[in-house]
Amino acid sequence: MAFYQRKPIKRLIDNSFFQITQSRQYFKLKKSQWLSRAILKKIQEKKLRTIIKYAYYNVQYYHDLFKSLNLTPSDIKNVNDLNQIPILTKSQIQNKSQKIIACNIDKNSCTSNTTSGSSGKPLTLLFDKNAMSNIGSRHIRNYFESGGHLRDKIVTFTNPNRFAHMKWFNHLGFLSKKYLSVFDRIENNISKLLEYSPDVIESYPSVLLLIVNTIQDKNIEGLNPRLILSTAELLSQNVRKKINSTFNIELFDQYGSAEFGTFAWECQEHNGYHMDIESVVVEFLKNGENTSPGEKGEIVVTGLFNFAMPLIRYSLGDVGSYRIEQCSCGRRLPLMKIIEGRTDDFLVLPSGTIISPRNVNFLENVDGISEYRIIQKKPNKILVQITKGTNFSQKTVSQAKEEIRSGCLGEDIIINVEIVDQIPRDKSGKIKAVVSEINKTIIKSK
User: Fold this and answer.
1) For 379-389, what is each residue's pLDDT tens digit?
2) Structural domain 347-436, CATH architecture
3) Strand 153-158 versus strand 200-203 pairing type
4) What are the strands, taking DSSP E only, across 137-196?
């Protein structure tokens, strides 16, 4: 009997150790945010030297790169020395993904994740157990520092492929989480929200806006969350104000990416976004040079926690600025501001239903796509432009159509797929992943 229970018991032990590790990291982070800026900088730069040295000796891409630049790990002593290393882009990782994975890592013990493709270019990532624990512990800190409570009932809107299993503490009533699909109709999701009566709603700004508009248009009452957290898309001031006034609360926005998790977040003062510098180095660059405080620049991030697939000076494609002033909340974590982020167009279905761009922008689940762009030509006609990636086949085309048709709530949509050599970029060099050519004046506060 014991023989057949070994695997479940081992899994239980592994999960327990993971939760213990994550809890320890959380309590360290809870304290470190109040440390002096000088001490935080020492912590950050010590971790930077560690990841640089590790990458040089264990990651072929960085070893070859340093050799070609005549650099050694000892040349990178602090954040200012990072400018000796070229910027890393998503396309470079796609072309050399195996060379950026550490050679001494057991891939079977790692967690893989795929970027949302908000830039039109999905990417598969690899995280070791410590990295997943780090991302989780930072998320917990951000959650509680934004006003979350241990006994909160939470609703998270996302792709069903990203629904997570309940943790052991969820069964005890701690951080009880329910997932709702962005593929479901807004009216149905509002009914579920009213039934569940959550304390906290986590969602994309575009989905929150559709919820708010529907509540106002149909005079729906009874939904009274205490806390709303937005993430993954650029949050405009108009949308923020509308959400705040509808629910009579202060929304808390978070900034991050699939590559690094959430690494910048708002406190109760809303003076900007506190950066998790214990785990990342965030640079703001203009023409390759560091910007001055308040000057906008390209956001470039170095992760200090993922030893399975280290990302050093990785460009997120967004634009922001940093503030030199300390937040009035007393935390010493430095502040940043997001100026230009990931924004896509809403879509209008033949029935007149308006859906979030997140409904269709999940083609990272389809194998064989290098880059893509989704263009709505008419309410019943969508064009998908695709550049071929590894493992591309006719199945790639059919799966892409299935994903988009599902996101369009099963309505009668003609979906055409066009294979192209290159997808045009905007002035910033990014691809707008979801474009609608329909006049959407019906959409308020966009």
Assistant:
1) 999 999 998 88
2) 2-Layer Sandwich (3.30)
3) parallel
4) 153-158, 176-181
